[in-house]
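Worked example

This section walks through a single chain of length 83. The input is the sequence exactly as stored; nothing has been trimmed or padded.
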Amino acid sequence: MAYLLHVANVLYLLSYLVKDILWLRLLTVVAGVLLMTWAFLQPQPVWASLAWNALFLAINLYQSWLLILERRPVRLSERETLL
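Given that input, the structure is written out below as tokens.
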């Protein structure tokens, strides 16, 4: 079970090495899910850690969604293209 904690922290380290903010957020999401799994599987679940990581997960998923929407290609009508 300790491997979940180690893999999560390695992913957090990798997220700090990437330059693209979307990849940083996505790596953080995966790391957070692993950390939440580890916290839940403890003999006495670490509820504070689960709650904080759930909040961070929601924020990172929302911000990732906004980044994905922002990166969509712009579609112009025929008239707009002619202009």
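What to look for: The first helix runs from residue 2 to 17.
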